Amino acid sequence: MIDGLFAHMALGGISASEAQAHLAQWAEEDVYKTLPGELALIRQAGFPRPDVFWRDGLIAVYGAFRD
After folding, report:
1. Are the C-beta atoms of residues 5 and 58 closer than 8 Å to each other?
2. Distances (CA, A) of 40 to 9, 11, 23, 30
3. What would the pLDDT profile of 6-55 be if each residue is shown by its tens digit?
């Protein structure tokens, strides 16, 4: 996924080393979890069946409904 992000950033003229620096800077305020990790957090919050509704590369729409 990171390779895909770097490729996307390269389209905007951002080199791999610049992209890595951006990620390091953003890490001060952003928390990156894997998609399975995100689904596990939703499950732990009381939603029994989290799911991915749509995914395209780095972008995903996911969530859950309360029963």
Report:
1. yes
2. 29, 33, 24, 18
3. 999 999 999 999 999 998 898 888 887 889 999 999 999 999 999 999 99
| Residue that is written with structure tokens 């953003």 in the block | 26
The total of other beta-carbon atoms located within 10 Å of residue 62's CB is 14
63, 50 Cβ separation under 8 angstroms: yes
Neighbouring CB atoms inside 10 A of 16's CB total: 13
What Å distances lie between residue 41 and 14, 31, 37, 44, 57, CA to CA? 32, 13, 6, 5, 21
Query: In angstroms, rounded to a whole number, what is the distance separating the alpha carbons of residues 39 and 64?
Result: 9
Place of tokens 């996911």: 62
pLDDT recorded at residue 52: 97
